[in-house]
């Protein structure tokens, strides 16, 4: 174990303890009672989060400040860890010494400039499409797409696990109907489309359209969209009218899938079949911002109907330079690390499923790794895996990994439904095979502790790291986090 990280975790000013302390209820405290009514009411709302230990806090990240293993950040290609993107960014900026720090307006009101247009053209061409619109984030991109593109009377069909930003956009859309289908379920997709076509003559005749929302890789599951199959179903049912179109959010495949990281759509050769693609630069590509890719009609509709194009400042040159720097890196040999990540994922599944405790852990329900089933047959192994245990053990498992210096992310409500909390583990180009094997080894050290407790072979009621956290919590008068 790396002492610097475990000490900082264990210290009372460490992020873990700060996070736990932040869950102390506030609305009934004497300080809060003396606040003006408005603030008291807000604290009451925050208390609803605290009561379920789901209040978020903005804290120092241990994986950035210690030598702990990063199995949680978005820096999938490790361009920030290695400094590759920084060097490329500075070189790109250096090539434009007279740059303006601000764009000076919204895209349609004095905020346009030649550089952003060049980069958009370059990226769109590289992705095999006509036009691109660079925006401040993929979150914004989804809000823009879904609030702007569906016309009155159109219908949105979405995979039930699409990102919060798609829901945010859909809420603002003019679509007459929004219908979800079971995650990655092609039969459910067919049923949903058929029932809409049956009940909506306007759609069936092609006077209105269906827009389909999917993601190439699902961020909280780590699985891949069966895009080709969905597209075939849509083609068959639309009978050549072109009234069923797809929007593919490539946030978690950008930089990782396809030729030089161009994404799943390019990997499958579907550039001409997908109406809209969204890429982010805030994950594997090591920067910030997003791009919406489509044809000129799509771009024009976004510029005119998405309020952010009109009422929010255009991304500035330094912001766009970081994006271009990443794009230039994608084709270089030192940046072709996506394959390494696949290898790490393979190591993970191999070590997991060959461990002698795996069958018992799985059958007893102590452990579940949904992506472990059929992993050898899948053409893509992604950089995201989720590890599940019984809900009351989630924090025991989290504390164990944190104390063993593996930083993983607990995913809880409101990000996922209540009762579906899990640990999310992400692999990065700079992670090593030894780290992945060490992680699996720790996983089974923890499983063994749980087995011993459940079978009455241990005198303890909780696993070691959990006992340490609970001893401190009890001293501080804190509860929750699966405390026994
Ligand atoms: C599927 C998906 N779309 C969009 C976003 C938003 O990305 P950004 O960080 O660029 O706003 C995320 C962020 O996690 C995501 O997972």
TrEMBL record:
Cofactor(s) this protein cannot do without: pyridoxal 5'-phosphate
Alphabetized Pfam families for the sequence: Aminotran_1_2
Record's compositionally biased regions (Low complexity): 1-13
InterPro entries attached to this UniProt entry: Aminotransferase_I/II_large (IPR004839), AON_synthase_class-II (IPR050087), PyrdxlP-dep_Trfase (IPR015424), PyrdxlP-dep_Trfase_major (IPR015421), PyrdxlP-dep_Trfase_small (IPR015422)
Recorded superkingdom: Eukaryota
Compositional bias segments (type: Polar residues): 24-33
Domain Aminotransferase class I/classII large: 69-442
Record key words, sorted: Pyridoxal phosphate, Transferase
GO BP terms in the entry: biotin biosynthetic process
Transmembrane intervals: none
Single Gene Ontology MF annotation: transferase activity
The keyword Oxidoreductase appears for this protein: no
Region of interest called Disordered, as start-end residue ranges on this chain: 1-33
Protein family according to the UniProt entry: Belongs to the class-II pyridoxal-phosphate-dependent aminotransferase family. BioF subfamily.
UniProt name for this protein: 5-aminolevulinate synthase
Organism expressing this protein natively: Massariosphaeria phaeospora
């Amino acid at each position: 174990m790396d002492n610097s990280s475990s000490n900082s975790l264990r210290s009372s000013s460490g992020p873990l303890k700060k996070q736990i302390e932040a869950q102390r209820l506030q609305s009934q405290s004497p300080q809060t009672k003396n606040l003006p009514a408005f603030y008291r009411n807000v604290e009451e709302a925050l208390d609803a989060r605290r009561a379920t230990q789901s209040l978020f806090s903005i804290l120092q990240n241990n994986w950035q400040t210690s030598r702990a293993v990063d199995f949680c950040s978005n820096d999938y290609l490790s361009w920030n860890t290695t400094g590759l993107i920084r060097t490329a960014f500075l070189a790109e900026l250096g090539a434009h010494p007279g740059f303006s720090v601000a764009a000076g307006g919204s895209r349609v009101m004095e905020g346009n400039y030649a550089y952003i247009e060049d980069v958009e053209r370059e990226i769109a061409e590289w992705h095999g499409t006509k036009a691109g619109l660079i925006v401040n984030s993929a979150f914004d991109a989804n809000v823009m797409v879904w609030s702007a593109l569906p016309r009155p009377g159109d219908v949105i069909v979405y995979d039930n696990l699409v990102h919060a930003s798609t829901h945010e956009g859909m809420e603002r859309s003019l679509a007459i109907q929004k219908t979800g289908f079971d995650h990655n379920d092609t039969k459910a997709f067919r049923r949903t489309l058929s029932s809409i076509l049956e009940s909506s003559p306007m759609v069936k005749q092609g006077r209105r359209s269906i827009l389909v929302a999917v993601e190439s890789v699902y961020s909280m599951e780590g699985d891949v969209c069966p895009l080709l199959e969905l597209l075939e179903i849509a083609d068959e049912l639309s009978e050549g009218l072109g009234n069923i179109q797809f929007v593919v959010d490539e946030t978690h495949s950008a930089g990782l899938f396809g030729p030089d990281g161009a994404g799943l759509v390019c990997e499958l050769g579907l550039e001409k079949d997908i109406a809209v693609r969204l890429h982010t630069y805030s994950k594997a590509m090591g920067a910030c911002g997003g791009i919406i890719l489509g044809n000129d009609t799509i771009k024009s509709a976004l510029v005119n109907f998405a309020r952010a194009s009109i009422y929010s400042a255009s991304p500035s040159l330094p912001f766009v330079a970081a994006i271009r720097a990443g794009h230039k890196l994608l084709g270089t040999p030192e940046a072709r690390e996506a394959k390494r990540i696949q290898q790490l994922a393979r190591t993970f599944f191999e070590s997991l499923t060959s461990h002698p405790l795996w069958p018992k852990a799985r059958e007893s329900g102590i452990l579940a790794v949904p992506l472990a089933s059929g992993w050898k047959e899948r053409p893509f192994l992604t950089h995201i895996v989720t590890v599940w245990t019984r809900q009351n053990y989630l924090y025991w498992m989290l504390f164990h990994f944190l104390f063993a210096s593996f930083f993983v992310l607990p995913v809880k409500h409101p990000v996922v439904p209540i009762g579906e909390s899990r640990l999310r583990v992400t692999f990065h180009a700079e992670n090593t095979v030894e780290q992945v094997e060490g992680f699996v080894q720790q996983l089974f050290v923890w499983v063994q502790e749980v087995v011993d407790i459940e079978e009455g072979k241990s005198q303890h009621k909780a696993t070691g790291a959990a006992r340490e956290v609970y001893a401190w919590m009890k001293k501080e008068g804190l509860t929750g986090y699966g405390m026994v």
